[in-house]
Amino acid sequence: MRRTGSGRTGIRPAAAAVWGTVVAFLVTGCVGMPEGGPPERVEIPQGAGAENLQVRVYPVAPYKGESPRDLLAGFLNASNADEPTYRTAKKYLTASAGDRWQPEAGVSVLDSQGQTGAPPPEGAASTEITVTGGLVGTLDGKQSYQSAADGEQFRQTFTFVKEDDGPDKGEWRIDRLPDGLIADQTTFKNGYRAVHRYFYALTDPSAEHPQAGAVLIPDPIYLRRRVDPLTAAAKALAAGPSTWLAPAVYSPLDGVRITAPVAVSDSKVATVKVDVPDFGGRSELCQQMAGQLYHTLADQQGKAPIQRLELSGVKGGCAIGADAAARIAPGSLAGENGSQQYYQLDDGRMMVAQGDGQGRAVAGPLGQPSPTGQTGKATPGTFAVRRDGGAVAVIGADGRNLQVVGTGEGDKLGTPVLSSRAPTPEQGLASPSWDGRQDLWLVDRDPAGSRVLMVRGGKVVEVPVAGLAGRTVKSLKVSSDGVRIALVLSNPKDNAQTVELGLLTHRGTAADPKADITGLRPVAPLLTDVASVAWADTDQLLLLGKEKGKLQQLHYLGTDGSQSSDSPLQGGESMTSVSATEDRDGDVVPTVLAVSDRRIYRLQGTQWREVPVPQEHPALSFSYPG
Fold first, then answer.
1. Which of 126, 150, 179 is the last residue of a domain?
2. What's the pLDDT tens digit per position in 489-530?
3. Residue 516, Cβ density class (10 Å: 0-12 exposed, 13-18 middle, ≥19 buried)
4. What is the C-alpha R_g of the chain?
5. For the residues of 196-248, what is the DSSP string, one character each?
6. CB neighbours of residue 546 within 10 Å
7. What is the pLDDT of residue 553?
8. Are 403 and 544 part of one and the same domain?
9. What is the DSSP letter of 611?
C-alpha cells in the first residue's frame, strides 16, 4: 500500500501481505500569555509528534506497466522505507543508474512535493519528470541537519527510459536521478530520529590549566529509526564530527572502525568491538573512546539508559560505568548551582529565589540596596551569575560599566572591569554570559565600534566574529562548555533581529589569550524579531521571538535549527526576556523564567506563576546562572 502520484492511496498486489501496522499518538497544545497583564494558564506539548508517530514502512517493488509518474512515486516511497540496503528502491532504476546512485549522500526535506512533466507520447523511449517543493532542511552525508533559508525551493529532474532488453524489457525505469533521498516532513519524522554523537572539546592553549575539565560536546544528527540505530550511531561517531563542529573538537575514535553490531544486554550492558589492534598500555585512550560511545549509545536508549559499556579491540579493552561517564558528560560544566534562580529588585538588591517565598538577598554588597548617589555600585541593569554562584557580572542601567562582584560576606565593590563609550544605554554593554570555565562573554554595542568581548580574570579580550556581513551583535548567550555561542544579530538593511550559532575556538597563551567566533549558521531563519535567547539544554535553545506578521512566541530549537517541539509556546508581546538552564537533575526539566510588565514568572507544569517579590520593589530581571 502506498500513495500514488495523484495523492490517492492504492493497494498493490505484492504489497498487501507485507504492509506493517500503523500506530500514531499525537499530543499537542499551546502556552498562552496575554499581550497585557499577568500570564494565564498554559498547555505545554507533552512530547514531540515525531517521537510519538511510529509507522513501519516496507518497500514495494515496481509492477508491470507502471507509468513514469507512478514509478517515481513508488521509488520515492521505497527509498524512504525501512530497508538498510535500498535493494528494492534500486529495482526502479536501470542497472547503470543503480550503480551510480548514492542514497547515503543526504536527504532533502520538503514541506510539500509537486511534479512537473507531461505524460510521454505513444512510442516514446524516454521522458523527464521534475520534483519540486519548498525546502525545509537537508541532511548531509554525515547526517547533520541544516535548516533551509526562508523561501528556498527544491527542484530536481528524473530521467526515465524504457528498457530494451532483459527481464524488464519494455518497462519504464529511472536512468538519471540526484544522489540522496527526497522526503516530505511526515515521512522524515516517521523515518528518522534526532540523536547525538559526542566529541571532546579541544583544550584551550591559552588557559592556565589547559588539560582541566574534559567535557563532551553534543553533535546532533538524524538516523533512520528502525535500521539498527545503535550500530548506526556508533558508526556515525567513528566517522567523525560534523563539518561545522570539527574545528572545535577532537575524537580518539578518529580512523577506528566498528567491527560488529552493537549489543545491549538485559542488564543494560552495551558491548562494542573496534579494530584497534591492541589496547595494551593504552588504557587512557580506551577510556576516552568508551566515554564517547557510552554517551552516544545512551542517547539512543531513552528511559532505559545503559549502565555500563564494554569496549574491546582485537586485543584488550576496557569498560566504563555510569558514574565515571557522568564526569565528562555534556553539561557537566553547567555547575552544581545551575538550577538556582536569581532576580534583581529595582532598589538594586540581588535575591536568591527560595521555593514560593520572596527569596533572600545574596551575601556581599550585591545583597544591599543601592544608596542614592552611590557611584561604586552599578544601579539595576543586567546581571549574570557565575555558574558556581561565587561571583556576579553586573552592567548598570546606563550600559556604561561592567563590574564583577563576589557573593561572599567579605567581598567588596571594585572598580569597573571595562567601560563603554556608547552615547545611550541601548548602545552600551549588554548580555553578560558565563561559560563553565569562568570566562565571561558580553557585547559592547557602541555604534562607533561594536565588539564581542571575553573577560578572563583581569584581561579583556576583543573577539572577532567571522561572517557578520554588515550585521551587528546585539546580545549573546554562551554554552557551559564554552564551545558554542548563540548570537542575536541585527541587520541594518531591514532591522531584522535573527539568531545564529557560532563556534568558539581559543588560541594564544595564558599571558595573551585570544579567541575567535566562526562558522555562523542560522538557527531560526523564520524568526525575524528575536527578543531573547537562552540555553535550555546542552543541545537546545529557547528563543523568544516572532515570525513576520505573527505574535511573539517561545520556540524550542535544536542547535542544528531543527524544531524541538511540534508547537511553539505562545507568549505575549509584553514579555521582554526569558531564561533557562542546561542543568538537569535526572529527567527533571527546570522551569522557564520570563520577565513581563516589570513582573517575573515561572512556567510550572501548565501554568505561568508570578514570583512573589516585595510590593514596594518590583523585580526587573530574573535569571539562572550563566
1. 179
2. 999 998 899 999 999 999 999 999 999 999 999 998 888 899
3. middle
4. 27
5. EEEEEEPP-TTSSSTTS---EEEEEEEEETTS-HHHHHHHHHHT---TTTGGG
6. 21
7. 87
8. yes
9. P
Residue 440: domain span: 342-623
The DSSP call for residue 366 is G
> What one-character-per-residue DSSP string does 394-434 give?
EE-TTS-EEEEEE-STT------SEE---SSGGGSEEEEEE
Q: Cβ neighbours of residue 158 under 8 Å, at least 6 residues apart?
A: 72, 128, 129, 130, 131, 174, 176, 177
Q: Residue 137 sits in a domain of what CATH number?
A: 3.10.450
Do 174 and 78 belong to one domain? yes
**Claim to verify: residue 509 and residue 441 sit in the same structural domain:** yes
Average pLDDT over residues 559-563: 85
Nearest to 276 by CA among 288, 266, 294: 288
pLDDT tens, position by position, 399-421? 999 999 999 988 988 889 999 99
Are 316 and 365 in a shared domain? no
Calculate mean pLDDT across residues 535-560. 90
- The number of distinct structural domains making up the chain is 3
- The C-alpha cell of 454 is what? 571575553
pLDDT at 533: 95
| pLDDT score at 93 | 97
Residue 24 has pLDDT above 90, yes or no: no
The gap from C-alpha 264 to its chain's centroid, in whole angstroms, comes to: 27
Domain membership of residue 361 (yes or no) is yes
Give 460: exposed, middle or buried? Use CB within 10 Å, 0-12, 13-18, 19+: middle
pLDDT for the residue 480: 95
Residue 556: strand, helix, or coil: strand
pLDDT band of 565, cuts 50, 70, 90: low
Question: Residue 619 and residue 596: Cα distance in Å, rounded?
Answer: 10
Q: Regarding predicted confidence, which is higher, 436 or 35?
A: 436
Contacts of 35 (CB under 8 A, 6+ apart): 551, 572, 573, 574
Residue 371, in any domain of the structure: yes
Return the CATH number at 272: 3.30.300
- Non-local CB neighbours of 161 within 8 Å, separated by 6+ positions: 94, 125, 126, 172, 173, 175
Tell me the C-alpha distance between 420 and 427, whole Å: 9
Range name among 47-51, 507-511, 570-574 with the lowest pLDDT average: 47-51
Q: Which of 13-27, 331-345, 472-486 has the lowest mean pLDDT?
A: 13-27
Task: Report pTM.
Answer: 0.85
Same structural domain for residues 387 and 493?
Answer: yes
> Which DSSP symbol is given to 362?
P
Phi and psi based region of residue 78 (left: phi greater than 0; alpha: psi -120 to 50; beta: remaining): alpha
* 44-48, 144-148, 488-492, 545-549: segment of lowest average pLDDT: 44-48
Sign of the alpha-carbon dihedral angle for 144, 217, 352, 406: negative
Listed residue (463, 354, 441, 439) closest to 395, CA to CA: 441
- Whether residues 106 and 252 share a domain: the answer is no
490 is a domain residue: yes
pLDDT of 567 reads 65
363 assigned to some structural domain: yes
Asked if residue 288 and residue 245 are part of one domain, the reply reads: yes
The rounded distance, in Å, linking the Cα atoms of 460 and 622 is 26
Alpha-carbon distances of 545 from 467, 525, 551, 597, rounded to whole Å: 23, 11, 8, 17
In sequence order, what are the residues at sequence separation of 6 or more whose Cβ sits closer than 8 angstroms to the Cβ of residue 368?
Answer: 348, 349, 361
Q: In whole angstroms, what is the distance from residue 368 CA to residue 623 CA?
A: 18
Residues 433 and 573 in one domain: yes
